[in-house]
Specification:
Number of helices: 7
CATH topology: Oxidized Rhodanese, domain 1
Radius of gyration: 19 Å
CATH architecture: 3-Layer(aba) Sandwich
CATH superfamily: Rhodanese-like domain
Oligomer: single chain
Largest sheet: 5 strands, parallel
Length: 133
């Protein structure tokens, strides 16, 4: 009898765990350089650089808005990021943009993606950053 109860409990636990998973697999949220480059050219795309001013001085992906995730300005101004567009985030390595993605998801943004590997992967793949003149 105890074994049957354990099996039932284990089954219920497995079902509950499956229900807690993200709605999209990580590969659909964490975009490769190739997928990111393709997606950001869509008119419904909002490209956001979440790096620090020092990093931004090295150049940005053309068309990007800049809002430093590490600054208080991000917390205060994230509402300026449109919810009716797909938001594409990037940073230097993908760490901060991943955190920014989680933050925006918590705030109700549903279509948010980020560049896996950040600008490091972007440059390594032969893509360019545009420097302010």
């Amino acid at each position: 009898m105890k074994i049957k109860q354990l099996i039932v409990l284990f089954g219920l636990f497995a079902v509950a765990l499956a229900g807690c998973q993200e709605s999209k697999p990580n590969d659909e949220i964490n975009l490769s350089v190739e997928a990111f480059a393709k997606e950001i050219n869509n008119e419904k795309a909002y490209l956001l650089d979440v790096r620090t001013p020092g990093e931004v001085a090295e150049g940005v992906i053309e068309g990007a808005e800049v809002l430093d995730f590490m600054s208080k300005a991000f917390q205060q101004n994230y509402t300026q990021i449109p919810k009716d567009k797909s938001v594409y985030l990037y940073c230097r390595s993908g760490n901060r943009s991943g955190k920014a993605l989680a933050f925006l998801k918590e705030k109700g943004y549903t279509s948010v993606y980020h560049l896996k590997g950040g600008t490091s992967a972007w440059l390594q793949a032969g893509q360019q950053l545009k420097r302010e003149e």
